Amino acid sequence: MSQMLERLQQEKVVAIFRYIEDQYADRAAEALISGGITLMEITMNTEGAAGMINRWRDKYGDQAGIGAGTVLDLDMAKEAVAAGSQFLISPNLDESVVEYGYSNGVPVWPGVMTPTEIVRAWKAGAEAVKIFPMGTLGWKYLSEIRAPLDKIPMLATGGVDLDNIADYFKAGACAVGMGSKLVNLDWVRSGRFDLLTERARQFADAAKAL
Description:
Elements (H helix, E strand, L loop, with lengths): L2 H9 L1 E5 L4 H14 L3 E5 L5 H12 L4 E5 L4 H10 L4 E2 L5 H9 L4 E2 L1 E2 L2 H10 L4 E3 L2 H13 L7 E4 L7 H6 L4 E4 L6 H5 L3 H17 L1
Parallel strand pairs: 1-2, 1-9, 2-3, 4-5, 6-7, 7-8, 8-9
C-alpha cells in the first residue's frame, strides 16, 4: 500500500478544486486545511492547474496531500507529475496513465463504473479506483459491486453530502471525493472562507465519526 493510499483511507475525504481562479486558490486551500480537510485535487481542466499544484506542494509541504484530477491521458499525467502531483485521479480508465503512475511511484485512482472496468484497473496496477458517477449510481450500487470486489479500495465521487455520507461508507467506500458541496465557488469568490472552513470541519467530523 502506498503512503498516499494509506492517507486516503485515514482521512476519507478528497476536496476537488475545479475551475477555481488562481487568485482565490491559496486562501481556499488554507480554509479547508483549517477545517481538517488536507487531501486536495486540482482538476487539469482548471486554468493554471499545473502551476497551482507546484505552488501548493512547495507552500504546504507535508501539511497537505496535493494531486491532479481529470487526468484524461498520458500527456496530462506527465504534466501533473512534473508539477509535483502526489496522486492522479481521472473520470476514465486509461491503462497507460495507470502504468505511468506506477512506474513513477505516483498512485493513480482511475474512474470506473462496471465490475469489468474495476478489475481491469486493478490488474493494470491501480491500488484504488474511483467509482463515478456516484450521483447517478447511488450508494446501493456501490454496496452491490463491493460484495464480490471487496479487496479493491473504492473512492466514491459524486452525489455525496452530509445527509448521506454515512451511507456511502457503510456501502464500502474507502473515501469520498467532494466537489461543489465542499469547495463552494460562490463562497470563495465572495471571500467567505470562514464558510469553507466550517463546511470542511463538518465533513471531516462526519468522516472521523465513521
